[in-house]
Amino acid sequence: MNIDTSKPVMVTGATGYVAGWIIKRLLDEGLTVHATLRDSGNEKKRAHLDLVAKDAPGTIHYFDADLLDDGAFADAMAGCSIVFHTASPFVVDVKDPQRDLVDPALLGTRNVLNQVNKTPSVERVVLTSSVAAIYGDNADVENTANGKFTEEEWNTTSSLDHQAYSYSKKLAEEEAWKINKQQDRWRLVCINPALVIGPGLNPRGTSESFRLIKQLGNGTMAAGAPRWAFGLVDVRDVAEAHLKAAFLPDAQGRHIIFAESKDFLEMGQLLRPHFPKYPLPRFGLPKPMAWLFGPFANKSLTRRIVTRNVGVPFRADNSKGIRELGMRYRPAEESLREFFQQLIDAGRLKKR
Predict the structure, then answer these.
(1) E strands within 143-273?
(2) What pLDDT, in 10s, does the model give residues 31-86?
(3) Within 13 Å and on the Cβ side, how many CA atoms surround 298?
């Protein structure tokens, strides 16, 4: 993978979970990174990036940019050859799905790519999408041609009222391809990771991933874990996929990125030998109980979501990423163990 370090590259949402590792890899390669965030003057929020930049051969420059402000990315993008658009909220429990999820994802993507169209130096855009743009519920696998989700599928079952996060990712990626196809100067490559796990550069990260793994060890699932399966992928592998998407000459299209499929109970079983003093789940929660009590325990866990996901396997084809990007994945156990340990070290998990 030949990397041209003569031109700067831009990363949106620089303080995000995935963005942090992308920036670290770019700096380690000696690149100049234009990092956008809402408040570049907040030294506390960017402290982990400053620390990484201190010992790396590359250079980082910070720019203020709000996803919803037209023209906000002009200064940061000027002269850049690659744009990594990672900025998009990953939360599930929101008050207003349109305002909190869809607008930042859809309008933010439109804003960034409209600026790409005005910036002649940009040759390629790498979009952090998600498998959520490919499917909404595990049960959607019944509608696939080969019993597995592939890059050919699009999420058709999510909406503002059901799996709103997934809906926001689908709308944003569709918008990106629409804008890309209206021109022929810059190439779009999409990374569609499953559930991202593994230690964050910032141990106080706010991604939904931190909350989900924390629930495994704080007693929330001690009485039983729902058998809801996800594809799992290490955040460092996701960052590697972004670099390959940016710098491999032939990289194109969408790429499902994940290592293994595990449900909550299986995750707990992987962690228990390493952390015996934490209330990790020992039993599966029967689906009827999850259906009955889920909405009371967590309002975002609706009965429709339980019906379409709990006890339904996650099956997806990750062969394109392996074949075309040369992806090699860390085992899920390693990623989970290091992630869980980070939560402990950061004081976010207590022994029982």
Answers:
(1) 187-193, 195-197, 225-226, 229-234, 253-257, 260-263
(2) 999 999 988 878 888 999 999 999 999 999 999 999 989 999 999 999 999 999 99
(3) 16
Query: What would the pLDDT profile of 124-152 be if each residue is shown by its tens digit?
Result: 999 999 999 999 999 999 999 999 999 99
Closest to 89 (Cα-Cα) out of 65, 113, 106, 110: 106
Phi-psi domain of 13 (left: phi exceeds 0; alpha: psi -120 through 50; beta: other):
left
C-alpha to C-alpha distances, 235 to 35, 54, 56, 232, nearest whole angstrom: 18, 22, 20, 10
Strand segments (E) across 167-249: 187-193, 195-197, 225-226, 229-234
Strand-pair partners of 127 = 85, 190
- Phi and psi torsions of 341, nearest 5°: -60, -40
Please choose, from the candidates 206, 196, 207, the residue with its C-alpha nearest in 3D space to the C-alpha of residue 330.
196
Domains of the chain: 9-345 (3.40.50.720)
Helix-, strand-, coil-residue percentages of the chain, each rounded to 5: 40, 15, 45
Q: Which of 24, 169, 170, 244 is catalytic?
A: 169
CA dist 34 and 114 (Å) reads 18
Q: What is the pLDDT of residue 351?
A: 75
Rounded CA-CA distance 107/109 in Å is: 5
Least confident of 55-64, 84-93, 301-310, 342-351: 84-93
Collapsing DSSP states into helix, strand and coil, what is residue 144?
Answer: coil
Q: Return d(Cα 8, Cα 246) in angstroms, integer.
A: 13
pTM summary value:
0.96
- How do strand 260-263 and strand 229-234 relate by DSSP bridges? antiparallel
Residue 169 among the catalytic residues: yes
β-partners of residue 316 are 149
Separation of first and last alpha carbons in the chain? 47
